UniProtKB/TrEMBL annotation:
Underlying gene: LOC104791956
Protein name: Exocyst complex component
Biological role stated in the UniProt entry: Component of the exocyst complex involved in the docking of exocytic vesicles with fusion sites on the plasma membrane.
Protein family: Belongs to the SEC15 family.
UniProt keyword annotations, A-Z: Coiled coil, Exocytosis, Transport
Amino acid sequence: MMEAKPKRRIVTENGDTGEDLVLATLIGNGDDVGPLVRHAFEMGRPEPLVHQLKNVAKKKEAEIEDLCKTHYEEFIVAVDELRGVLVDAEELKSDLASDNFRLQEVGSALLVKLEELLESYAIKKNVTEAIKMSKICVQALELCVKCNSFISEGQFYHALKTMDLIEKSYLKLIPLKVLKLVIERRIPVIKSHIEKKVCSQFNEWLVHIRTSSKNIGQTAIGLTASARQREGEMLERQRRAEEQNTGGLGESAYTLDVEDSEQDSVLKFDLTPLYRAYHIHTILGVPERFRDYYYENRLLQLKSDLQISYAQPFVESYQTFLAQIAGYFIVEDRVIRTAGDFLLADQVETMWETAISKIVAILENQFARMDSPTHLLLVKDYVTLLGTTLRQYGYEVGPVLDALDKSRDKYHELLLEECRRQIVTAITEDSYQQMVIKKEADYENNVLSFNLQTSDIMPAFTYIAPFSSMVPDVCRIIRSYIKGSVDYLSYGVNTSFFSVLRKYLDKILIDVLNEVILETINNNSIGVSQAMQIAANISFLEKASDYFLRHAAQLCGIPSRSVERPQASLAAKVVLKTSRDEAYLALLNVVNTKLDEFMKLTENVNWITEEMPQGPHEYINEVVIYLETVMSTAQQILPMDALYKVGVGAVEHISNSIVSTFLSDSIKRFNANAVSAINHDLRVIENFADERYHSSGLNEIYKEGSFRSYLVEARQLINLLSSSQPENFMNPVIRERNYNTLDYKKVATICDKFKDSPDGIFGSLANRNTKLTAKKKSMDMLKKRLKEFN
């Protein structure tokens, strides 16, 4: 037993390993070996641990055996204890095996689960990555769908913004190369499609805006016309206020304030397609191309609009033509003001210069063709409205107004010719009878309207006017001429055109009215009543010339007081006054011709009668009746100065006729009885002259020039021939007092014809030795001295 013991220790010692030592150390130190056991089972290698434990146990047994030798009793006890430990160890081993088995069972399931879990983690990672990639693709596709929807709805701006978002934010992130390639290829195609669609919509807008330009222009010109009408009404109120204001100018002020925004608020037209197209082309990066496209197409439209059809009269198409141009440039103004830098001012200026040159050429050509002042005025008015309208938008319309100014004389020639026809008709169709006015309204229209009234008091009706219907008819024609002239001159190049209007007013009064009147006066078929009425009419037309000037000044906005000065009157007034004198001369010629028919002294007077006359000749009664008729009519019709001229001319002609008859070669001789008869006739005329002079009231006006004074030559001649001492004619003092109007030669000629007694067959021989009377001696002396004087 003792020999075997060392050998066993050696074996045990030789069998020790590092792990056995560690385990032995742990057990010796009383440390917990549970972790080692757990680890062995976890690793699935419990056998080495069991083997180690057995080694440790053997080692301990050897130690115990040694110890037992030393401490036997203690050893026995220890053996017993050890046997108990062994039992416990077996139980522990059994428990460990059982636990290991259960652990294996549980661990295997857990390992399967772990593998499944790890596989799930890998799948999850892949799925997450796939989802992320799918989301990018889905978002890109959703944007593509949205882009297609925008395109189908015509929302091209949103479509382009969506494509821009796809390009910048999604295209690089799309993992699918096929999808990425498809999108990359489709984007340029879609942009091209959008550009075509936008251009198509823009072309439709171009057609629409061209069609709408006429309405735009007509509306704008209509607004200008309304503003012009309001301005005219305001100026008329201002003029009336100034005329009623005795304090002078400055107390009443009116201004015309037309807001520039009025037309913009009324002229509503849609530029959205233009804005949208320009914006989309800007997004596409080709704004210049679109600007050029717009400018070229609008310029083509303008050139087309500037073409007129000669198949239709211009007077029927000018409003449409001009309204189209106005609308075109109103649109361009709105574009240049609202579209930023889209349209350049130089481009609009080029278009305007193109239009203005064409418009001027068309107007000059059409004006040259026109033969109606009404048509020319209608076109002119619309052109000035066009100019005023476009000037509000900053366009220079001077050349158009210059074209109108160049046609000014043409218009007035046509207007003058039209008025000439009307005036000729009014004068030739005149009845030359005083106008009968039965109603106050007619009085206002025919008399007061032209300041033709002779009194400020309203007359009783029926009223017999001193003029014929020709006067108010002509006044209306002249007034319409003034209105037509003002209408043409208004709103032209010259804002102050009163001097021009004055020139044209003088022209119609002198070259037309006065000329027609003179032609009528110089007509040989004119009668006394016609001549008298013409003379009366001229005097009223002369008076109306002041009204014409005031009316012209009123229409021109000139204060009426500035033309009421005598030096401001029309030149036509002087010409009409001259024509009035011509009419008076014509009247006097007719009256004198008629007087000559009545008198015929060589036929109605027996110049060598032997009987003393008991009274005037019968013809003188007819002369007086005729003069009475003429003077009565003249007093009703003619003004007082004309009445005076008619009376003076008639009696002076009678006086001249008497003297001329004595001087006539057809009167070879006459005697005292003939002189006495003529003296009776002359007294009748003198009495009539005095009665008419006083009854007509001329004595209060012409106090030193009575009608009788114009019979003085005949009276002095009759007095000389009736004088008992005719030789006193040679006495300067007596001649100056009693015979100052008689001419020496005339007296000498007449006295040579004077025979104091009629000659019979033997008269000269029978009376040769008869004593000459004192009167005969005196007459002979006068004849002798006159011969010596001559």
